[in-house]
Design brief:
- The chain has 345 residues and is of the alpha/beta class.
- It contains 12 helices and 10 strands.
- It has one domain: NADP-dependent oxidoreductase domain (TIM Barrel, Alpha-Beta Barrel).
- 37% of the residues lie in helices and 13% in strands.
- Helix 9 runs antiparallel to helix 12.
- It is globular, with a radius of gyration of 19 Å.
- The termini are far apart.
Length: 345
Amino acid sequence: MEYRSLGRTGLEVSCLAFGTDNFLDPTPERESTEMLNRALDAGVNLLDTGDIYAGGEGEEMIGRALKANGRRHEVLLCTKVDHGMSQPGVSLDNEVPVLPPNRHGNSRYNIIRACENSLRKFQTDYIDIYIIHRPSWEIPIDETLRALDDLVRQGKVRYIGCSTFPAWAIMESFLISRELHLNRFVVEEAPYNLLDRRIENELIPMAQKYGMGIIPYLPMAMGVLAGRYSDAKKYPKGSRAEYRGGFYKQRVTQKGIETAGEFAKIARRIGISPAQLALLWVKDQPGVTAPLMGPRTIEQLEELLPVAEMTLDDQTRAACDELVPPGSVVSDYHNTAYWMKMKVL
């Protein structure tokens, strides 16, 4: 397993990270635990979750698994607070319940409340990386950063980061952290795959210049690049578009499926699966620390782990660039970034 520095920190992160959004939803706990242990055995050391995953039960399951295997201190445990419900009565998905006042957004009250709750569920006394899930424009960033800085100074959090922030907002946070002598964001989690390359325009160059880690999510485009979908209106049983609906199904487009068909030809030509190539392509893009793989089954995990030992060659990279040019977009995987005004037609 290759390990990479997380931005300008001293943390060494495995070149593949484990996204646990499928734990308990739909993957049963026994298989989820088996996948977690298998990933650790393979050298994966970053586990990513969030306080809303599986209705909040995902953190509890991970806590039980790490207590049972005794490997908490081998793991960089990353979790998130809030998920874009930055205004009372506003939800990104009508299937997500709207939270009452003071239980959403990036206020001091909510951040500290949520952190204490996550620590309890994990059965641990510290979180390695604590991430703001989405921006809250109505809450000044200095309030958010002061609360996070307090958690770091108390030893409850080691590093802080953000997810699905625009580059300008991250730069603003850097300036405020410097001015007020606060801990700064060290990592951004962003949607990134061959079908949506928009972070190459501003976010990745900014991260490279200022020493910020990039942990991409959705590297397989929610299974589209893995060849799971053949029709933008007929979803496979058990797929996220089928059983979760909402913004998940909005990401599946006919143009994306057609592009994935050409992408599969490239994968077959070099002798690997489309899922492996999708993950490999993200892993070896400039500025990327480690993509989040999010397998649903142990078989999917076993297929993806060998990608850690693969390298994207220049000819394959060029072939992928011909399908979707750098910085461009085919399908919208920023559709939970409510600040993104550009719509994909």
